[in-house]
Amino acid sequence: MRFDVLTIFPEMFSALTQWGVTGRACEQDLAQVKLWNPRDYSSDSRKTVDDRAYGGGPGMVMMVKPLEDTVNAIKTDHQAQNLSSGPVCLLAPQGERFSQKLASDLLKRSNLTLICGRYEAIDQRFVDRNVDLQISLGDFVVSGGEIPAMAIMDALIRLIPGALGDDESALQDSFMNGLLDYPHYTRPEVYETLSVPDVLLGGHHAKIADWRRQKSLELTLRIRPDLIELARANGLLSREDERFLQDLVK
Asked: Where are the transmembrane segments (predicted)?
């Protein structure tokens, strides 16, 4: 999958392209990241990409033309590479809440363009003319779109077949089956007074699977009961799950 990222701070993305799971995926060409700086498409000598807001108020606003010229350059590059342009996504507080389902849906596209805003805002005319989807990580504000963009790219890259050492790892992540993940343990078997649950030491795969499912249900009910209702609405809970949840509530 190819990611085209519009940012005035391209150096920040070395954290994603050079390290860990995402770095290995880029090295193996499972994911391609191309960075585009709108300052390179600014027409003045200062490479200006922002100006004061009409109507007054604090902060600066990113200008339409440098951003739009950058997006057009990205689309031209797609055409030269015989790629169909995927959605143009803006990282913004008012966007759709990012989720594992949205990550899976976006992964179906061959490429994704991510717009990393800075300053107070982006000129709304750029958004209206160029943006297909706005995405938010949650109800909070950060200094720019770079960190949210990297979080989204990380979430997608780990879903690409071959990106993880074991593809089953992604399938067992929290939210993949609508629930939170179950607890995990490793050596030593006893740490101070805390022991690994006996069921995990017995080697009985069916019992381990049952224990993990029940712990996943228990944790989700306690921390994120909203996910239980969503999983129920989507038909992700079995009769055994429902019986276990009823016992927990009792």
From this structure: none
- Quote the CA–CA distance of 125 and 144 in Å, as a whole number: 19
pLDDT of residue 222: 96
- 163 lies in some domain: no
Three-class SS state of 44 = coil
Known catalytic membership, residue 120: yes
User: Does 145 appear as a known binding residue?
Assistant: no
Residue labelled with tokens 């990380």: 154
Confidence of residue 175 (pLDDT cuts 50, 70, 90): confident
**Structural domain that includes position 181:** 172-249
Residue at 78: amino acid letter: H
The answer as to whether 165 is a domain residue is: no
Q: Would you say 140 is a known binding-site residue?
A: yes
List the catalytic residue out of 39, 68, 87, 93. 93
Q: Is 187 a catalytic residue?
A: no
What pLDDT was estimated at residue 165?
A: 77
Whether residue 158 lies in the annotated active site = yes
Q: What is the pTM of this model?
A: 0.89
| 175 labelled ligand-binding | no
Token pair 């019986």 in the structure block, residue: 243
- Residue 222: which H helix or E strand, with range? helix 205-223
Q: Is 87 a catalytic residue?
A: no
Q: Concatenated DSSP letters for 85-98?
A: ---EEEEEEEEEEP
pLDDT band at 172 (very low <50, low <70, confident <90, very high): low
What's CA 4's distance to the chain center, in Å?
Answer: 15
Task: Pick the last residue of a domain from 124, 157, 190.
Answer: 157
